[in-house]
Amino acid sequence: MKSLTLAKHFLRTAVYYKVDFLATLGIPVFFLIYNMRGNLFHHVSAYPQLMMILSWTGYMVVTNALLGSGPAIIVLREEQFMKMFRFISGSQFTIIYAKFLAQLFILLLSVLILDLLCSVLFFLPFFYLIVVSLVMVIVCYIPVYLLFLIIGTFKIRQETALPLINILVLVFVYLTNMGSDQSSNGLLTMFLTAVNPIQYSEQTGSFLLSLTRPGHLEGSSPLLFILGTALIYLLIGLYALKNIKCLPIFRS
Amino acid sequence: MEIQHLTFHFPKNNRLLFHDLSMNIQENTVNILLGMNGEGKTTLFDIISGLLDTNATFTHRIEPRNILYQIQGVPILNTITGKNLAELILCSSGQYSSRDLSPKLFEDELKHNEDSLEKIKRIWITQYGKMSPGERRWFTVLLYCLIQKSLYIFDEPTAGTDPFSKGQIVRAIDHLQEKDRTVLYATHQLDDLAYFQHYFVHILAGGKIVLSEDQNHWMEAARELNIPFPSNFSR
């Protein structure tokens, strides 16, 4: 109940500052439509298009996790919101959990809109797409969110948090492109999967997609490697949770 | 609750903020903490509330989950109404559900004063950005007072408010001691003290609590110690 009240407040704030939706939903919608404009209102092979949609879903997982995780915690810490509500709610974990829930709700809604739009525009199987996308979001969002919590332990000011998000997104997109260009190199793909959460999410999506297409598992990272990466992200997140402070840096 | 042998400096600053400080917080009453800017009143509150680790010895320490710490200047979304703010503060405390929310909640706090209750009804439907600074502060403090905790920390709750709002805010806090709650209250405004029925004064200077006296004796003790306070203060 405590977390739901705070999550409702965070959702209200997110709706008030609408500009974040441009980065998390607007960009994927624009680039998907632009890249697949030749297939608009045509029945074509679904698999490459589904892969592209899942790739952008991976981007959405990462941008939403970034916006709701460590950098957001820094802003809440520096504005003293963490300090105030830690005492009201009794624990700073309640605030972090509320932020997690609010951003997950935004992500699920964004994925639903993206899938619905793509299904209509490209005649794709909506229910199949939404099931694969939602499973991907549920599997990837928790580890990626926890990974970015590590940023919340950094002693940086809130003015630094936004540029940091932009830089990280650019780096991850660059690494994803690099991984796509050299997808034949197994070791490089594995390394990029481990350090790049977009690639990790994309590989998870690819794996989930291949599960529904018997005999097409060769293009996916091994399940153990995906699980191993998730475990590393989770461990980093647990370390971050233990070390997040709620005092702003000017008071500590 | 008692603190003893508190010695503290910030990690990146070698200047000792507190040097073997001791303080006895009187239970079930209002403890006023006075001190010049930079003496470390907020830092002392951060230590008492468990936000900063120190080597101090605590006796009968109150757990952070039983403390309510009011902070100034936390940005709140301008478009939320008084009701939304009440929901945010009261429901996130876990002590209220959204069904409990109504201006009637404040009847006891306001001692059934009709004028004040009418004002609350208006604030209830007013956006936070359209409330006056005094109304915002008063309403927020009232919400804090509705949450049940053992220790309430107020860090300059009347700073920047007009005399009327100041009176409303302090009276709301004063009501806490009628419910046998312990209050820690930092201020630079000595006229705040006039609104409290009972209080105990602690003066922080040079890294120590140099004076701890009740409302009847603190001024005299302060004069003896040559601690400068306005001479026109009377209580």
Q: What can you see in these coordinates?
A:
The complex is a heterodimer of chains A (252) and B (235). Chain A has 252 residues and is mostly helical. Chain A has one domain (2-251). Chain A has helices at residues 2-16, 19-35, 46-68, 70-78, 81-89, 92-122, 126-148, 158-181, 186-195, 197-211, 223-243. In chain A, helix 2 packs parallel to helix 6 and helix 7 crosses helix 11. The two termini of chain A are 31 Å apart. The mean pLDDT of chain A is 87. By secondary structure, chain B is α/β, with parallel strands linked by helices. Chain B has one domain: Rossmann fold (3-Layer(aba) Sandwich). Chain B has 6 helices and 9 strands. Chain B has helices spanning 41-48, 82-91, 114-124, 133-146, 163-178, 218-224, and strands at residues 2-8, 18-24, 30-35, 57-59, 67-70, 151-155, 182-186, 200-205, 208-214. Chain B has a 6-stranded mixed sheet with strand order 5-6-7-3-8-9, sandwiched between helices. In chain B, helix 5 links the parallel strand 6 and strand 7. The model of chain B is unreliable at 231-235 (pLDDT under 50). Chain A binds chain B through residues 1-2, 5-6, 8-9, 12-13, 16, 79-81, 83-91, 94, 246-247, 251-252, and chain B through 10-11, 42-43, 46, 49, 51-52, 64-65, 67-71, 73-75, 77, 79-80, 84, 87-89, 91-94, 97, 147, 149.
List the main descriptive attributes of the protein structure presented here:
heterodimer; A: mainly alpha; B: 235 residues; Rossmann fold; 6-stranded mixed beta sheet; 3-stranded antiparallel beta sheet; disordered C terminus
How many beta-strand elements of chain B?
Answer: 9
Largest sheet of chain B: 6 strands, mixed
For the terminal residues of chain A, how far apart are their CA atoms?
A: 31 Å
Q: What average pLDDT do the residues of chain A reach?
A: 87
Overall pLDDT of chain B: 90
CATH architecture descriptor text of chain B: 3-Layer(aba) Sandwich
Sheet with most strands: strand arrangement of chain B: 5-6-7-3-8-9
Order of helices and strands of chain B: EEEHEEHHHEHEEEH
What is the helical fraction of chain B, as a range of percent?
A: 25-40%
Distance between the termini of chain B: 26 Å
Count of DSSP E strands of chain A? Answer: 0
Beta-strand fraction estimate of chain B: 15-25%
| Strand proportion of chain A | under 5%
Main sheet of chain A, how many strands, which sense, barrel?
none
Going by helix content, strand content and strand pairing, the class of chain B is alpha/beta
CATH evolutionary superfamily of chain B: P-loop containing nucleotide triphosphate hydrolases
Report the C-alpha radius of gyration of chain A, rounded.
19 Å
Discrete helix count of chain A: 11
Oligomer: heterodimer
Low-pLDDT ranges of chain A: none
